[in-house]
Structures are given as C-alpha cells and as structure tokens.
From TrEMBL:
Keyword Transport: yes
Pfam families: Complex1_51K, RnfC_N
Protein name as annotated: Respiratory-chain NADH dehydrogenase domain 51 kDa subunit
GO MF, one example: 4 iron, 4 sulfur cluster binding
InterPro entries: Ion_transpt_RnfC/RsxC, Nuo51_FMN-bd, Nuo51_FMN-bd_sf, PR_assoc_PrdC, RnfC_N
Organism, scientific name: Thermosediminibacter oceani (strain ATCC BAA-1034 / DSM 16646 / JW/IW-1228P)
GO cellular component assignments: membrane
Keyword terms, alphabetized: 4Fe-4S, Electron transport, Iron, Iron-sulfur, Metal-binding, Repeat, Transport
C-alpha cells in the first residue's frame, strides 16, 4: 500500500478519544487504538501495520502490504449493548452520535425506525446495501428492537428505490416489522421528519425521537450492530459513495468497507481519478456536505465524496436564505464567495430556530412560505438569491423570486449539474 492511514481521534459527537498506542508500535487490524474518556466511541486500527505518529488529533499507521482477512475481535461481553460499545459504533448516517448511548433506553414497547431514506441526492450506498444485503440490516434492526424493548420496527425507504423496498420486504418474517415508503423530497430522512411521517407526531426542535418512544438508526449503523453482535467485529470500515467529475464517468460508485483513515485522494483515484479542473470536493451529500481538502480521510461518518464542476461566476449582489436542515449561513457565504458574489443580506427561513448553539427547523420540509423573506432580501439590495432551502421551500421561493426578477441559485446547483441531476427548483406535484 502506497499511502498511510490517518485515523482521527474524534469521529463522533463528544470529546476526542485518548490514544492507547504509541509511535513505533505494531498494531493488528481491529486492535483498539484509542478509547473515550467522556462521551465518545472506541477507535480501532482499520488495517494491520506500524504506528508512525500519534498527535492530539489522529493516529497515523503505515499499513502492511499484505493484509489479513480476519481482524482482532472485540472482547466477550455480557450484553448486546456492551458489544456495541466495545465495537465503537456511532451513527454512520453522518450524525456520529455514539450508538451505545442512543440505544441505552427502554422504549417500553415503542418503535425503532431503520433510516434507509438516504435523503441527500446522489448518495446511494445505503440503498445499495439494502438491495445487496438486506438480511444484515434486518437482523441489526431486530437486535436494536430487542435492546431498546421496542415492539414495532419500520424500515423507511424512498418509494422510488423499488429494488431496495422489495429486497427488504423479502426478508421480513416478523409481523411487528414493516417497510414504509417515503416521498422523494429533502429532508425526508431527518429524524423528526421520520417521526412525523411514520408515527404522526411532530416533535419540538429540542426534542429527541425518544420523546415519541422511538429510536432512529441509519441502515449502515444497524448492519454494524449486526456485525458486532454476530461476528464480534469492531467498526473499522465505512461504506462510501464516490461520484462526480471523474475520468471513469459521472455515475455513482459505491465502495463497501473502505478502511477508516483512508485518504479521500486515494478513494477518488480508485474511482477513476479527477477529470480536469474541479470546483469543490464535498464530503457528505449536496445539501449538508462540507467542502474539504484532499488531505481529508474517510471516517465513521463519511457517506459521500463528490467532485464537483467549477462554481458559476456571479458578480451581482446576493441575498442568502438559510435553512435549518440544508445550508447554514457559513455554507451559503462560502458558496457566494466562491462564486465571486458579495453578500447583500442574510435571512433565515422562518422555521429556523436556535437549539443548543446550532440551528434546527421547526417542521422539516413543510414550507412556511418564503415571500416575506425574499422581499426583505430584495430591500437589502439583493439582485440574485442563493438559497439553501429544502425541496418544499425551494418550490415557494420559485413561486415568488421570478416575479420580483430575482434569479435563484440553490447551493447544490454546481454539485447536481456535475452529474446531470435535475436541479432543486420547482417540484412537480
Ligand atoms: S421549512 Fe425552512 S428551515 Fe425547514 S427544512 Fe424547509 S427551508 Fe429548511
């Protein structure tokens, strides 16, 4: 192997883990290399090799050329919850919340929802996993129901992903569990949107699904639970979608079990390599992903690597419309700057509220109407809009902005244009 692994000490919500290995030490694939002191999740070597550096941020490993098929199993535990903790499982849909903490609840007959919505456009590793290996997701869901004392299980999938819907239905042998088909709008996979759609209860932005006696877990997370329980396997790899401006074409490629700590440059090379000049490399999906540098690495929460076309140039003054589930102010300012536009003003969708230092939407994906905000941005001097809004709200933006002669960019435009995906604009009902 030509590259080194750089395994971050923080791949989860909480505090960074403390290394338990030193530079020069030989480590085996699956060996524990860092453990949390506070809220966090164990970190294991994703490949066998020699530790070449330990810093406050990461552990670097030079992998051996020959890698074993097997791994160091997690130690024997007295419960499934302990196995999840030992395996270092976190929310692999992107949230990164330690799963052993999330699952440590008594739902008293409540509900576990397997989140297979994959609501960001372009990403397809969750859908592919359900199509190719529905069993592992299903068994993970059953373990999660057992751990949390739930009596209902749902698997949420967009109705358009017919193959995944059929594959999941084909393995269900328990009348307490069913597939729920979801519409193809953003942000259908948001936790509170799922609780609202499936259980009919709208939670406040500061409430967790547990307030509705529910736990929501991404389908890859459930598959890792299954691996930890049945195979004593720690989290040492991640499923990732790579897509965009690549020599091999612009269709999505799914890589299963990419070792944690793999440089994204390596993964892009494996997917065919860059095609000409690119605009951004986005880690995550078009709506909530971050623009990153090439020296970034795959972590437990990396879902997508997207290589985009260059951003369009725009010299007019831009008004920014912030969303609680899509682009926040920092991301919209970054997009405006990369386009060359100066910012005339910033407004938030009126359903955006502050929660614990971040922002959230009061009712994800149900538009409150954007006319007032757009008029305000025009008054501030905006000649164009850059919006980060959900599908439903973009629909109403498009009902107002053209009448005021305000051209609209969505912050996902350059990303979606790269692969010929329809832009986020007016939804066809
Ligand atoms: S309603 Fe507003 S804040 Fe909520 S998801 Fe839509 S644009 Fe974002």
């Amino acid at each position: 192997m030509e590259y080194k692994l750089k395994i971050p000490l923080q791949q989860h919500i909480g505090a960074p883990c403390k290394p338990v290995v030193s530079a020069g030490e030989r480590v085996k694939k699956g060996q524990l290399i860092a453990a949390p002191e506070k809220l966090g999740a164990n970190i294991h070597a994703s490949l066998s090799g020699v530790v070449t550096a330990v810093t406050g941020e990461y552990i670097e490993i030079e992998p051996d050329k020959e890698q074993p098929e097997d791994y160091v199993p997690i130690k024997e535990t007295s419960s499934m919850l302990e196995a999840i903790k030992e395996a270092g499982i976190v929310g692999m849909g992107g949230a990164g919340f330690p799963t052993h903490v999330k699952m440590d609840v008594d739902l008293q007959g409540g509900t576990v929802i397997a989140n297979g919505v994959e609501c960001e456009p372009l990403l397809s590793h969750n859908v592919r996993q359900m199509e190719q290996n529905p069993e592992i997701v299903y068994r993970g869901l059953k373990y999660a129901m057992q751990i949390t004392n739930a009596s209902r299980g749902y698997i949420a999938i967009k109705a358009k992903n017919k193959k995944a819907v059929e594959a999941m239905k084909s393995v269900i042998d328990d009348p307490r569990i069913e597939v729920r088909e979801m519409p193809d709008i953003y942000p259908m996979g948001e936790e509170r949107a799922l609780v609202r759609e499936i259980l009919g209860q709208l939670l406040r932005p500061d409430q967790l699904p547990s307030a509705a006696r529910a736990v929501i877990s991404n389908v890859e997370t459930l598959s890792r639970i299954c691996e930890a329980v049945e195979k004593r396997k720690p989290v040492i790899s991640k499923n990732v979608t790579v897509i965009g401006r690549l020599k091999s074409g612009r269709q999505a490629r799914v890589f299963f079990d990419v070792p944690i700590g793999t440089p994204i440059a390596e993964l892009i090379e494996k997917a065919g390599g860059f095609e000409g000049d690119f605009g951004e490399i986005i880690m995550g999906g078009p709506f909530t992903g971050k623009a990153v540098d090439l020296d970034c690495v795959v972590t437990k929460t990396t879902g997508g690597i997207i290589v985009t076309d260059p951003l369009p140039r725009e010299k007019r003054k831009a008004g920014l419309l912030v969303c609680g589930c899509g682009a926040n102010e920092a991301r919209l300012r970054e997009v405006a700057e990369k386009m060359g536009a100066c910012v005339a003003g910033v407004e938030r969708c009126k359903q955006v509220v502050d929660v614990k230092g971040g922002i959230k939407c009061e009712n994800p994906g149900n538009c409150p109407g954007q006319a007032e905000k757009i008029l305000k941005l025009k008054k501030m001097g905006a000649d164009v809009l850059i919006v980060g809004t959900c599908s439903d709200c973009t629909n109403t933006v498009m009902g107002v902005a053209p009448k005021l002669k305000l051209p609209v960019y969505h912050h996902t435009d350059h990303v979606l244009r790269t692969v010929g995906h329809p832009l986020v604009r007016r939804l066809k009902k």
